[in-house]
Write a structure and sequence with these properties.
Elements (H helix, E strand, L loop, with lengths): L5 E12 L12 E13 L9 H4 L5 H13 L2 E2 L9 E2 L6 E5 L3 H7 L9 E4 L5 H18 L5 E9 L5 E5 L7 H5 L7
Parallel strand pairs: 1-5, 5-6
Antiparallel strand pairs: 1-2, 2-7, 3-4, 7-8
The protein binds zinc ion.
């Protein structure tokens, strides 16, 4: 069996959300210090210049760090296939993350202080599970745009609290890159 080796990067960020369909107190707007661990492996079928057998590295940590920083703290949305043309959306850090269908979204959008709010509108409930899926896709698109198709985001672990966290895994790292990206998650 082939040994699997990953590199992992941990960051944390602040954000507020609410789960409008929740039966308990998560229905109310509240905040978390999210802890995020991003795991990446090299595509075992990759045979180019960056291959681990040559470099000794899955990838330079700097490549992964750059993409994570741009997505979480700068609001980059990389469009797969359109090289070097990320759009700038709302950074997740210090955002208010809501489902676009949530009535609170339009209340905040039409408030006098709307321009001061980092309102991040999703097409789905902003649970840790859904956010982890979205982040996996954003990071993978970023790596694609930096022409590192050999680096596959294989796991996203996202903590809302010390004890509550979601994990999304791309189970089969041998599937083609396009399939890994095909996990859904969009932003308005
Ligand atoms: Zn919460």
């Amino acid at each position: 069996m082939q040994t699997r080796i990953s590199i992992n990067k941990q960051v944390s960020f602040e954000a507020a959300h609410r789960l409008r369909l929740h039966k308990g107190k998560c229905k109310s707007l509240h905040g978390h210090t999210y802890k995020l661990i991003v795991s990446a492996e090299q595509d075992p079928s990759y045979s180019g210049a960056h291959r681990r057998e040559e470099t000794g590295m899955v990838a330079d940590f700097g490549v992964l760090s750059k993409v994570i920083k741009q997505v979480i703290f700068e609001g980059f949305v990389f469009i797969a296939g359109s090289k070097f043309a990320p759009t700038i959306s709302v950074p997740f850090d210090h955002a208010i993350i809501l489902n676009a269908k949530d009535p609170l979204t339009s209340v905040l959008e039409h408030s006098d202080c709307a321009k001061d709010l980092n309102l991040c509108k999703l097409l789905f409930e902003p649970t840790a599970e859904n956010m982890a899926i979205l982040l996996m896709r954003r990071f993978q698109d970023g790596l694609f745009n930096y022409e590192r198709k050999d680096i596959l985001i294989t796991k996203i672990s996202l903590w809302e609290t010390e004890t509550n966290f979601a994990i999304v895994e791309a189970k089969d790292i041998e599937i083609k890159n396009t399939k890994i990206r095909d996990i859904g998650g969009e932003i308005v």
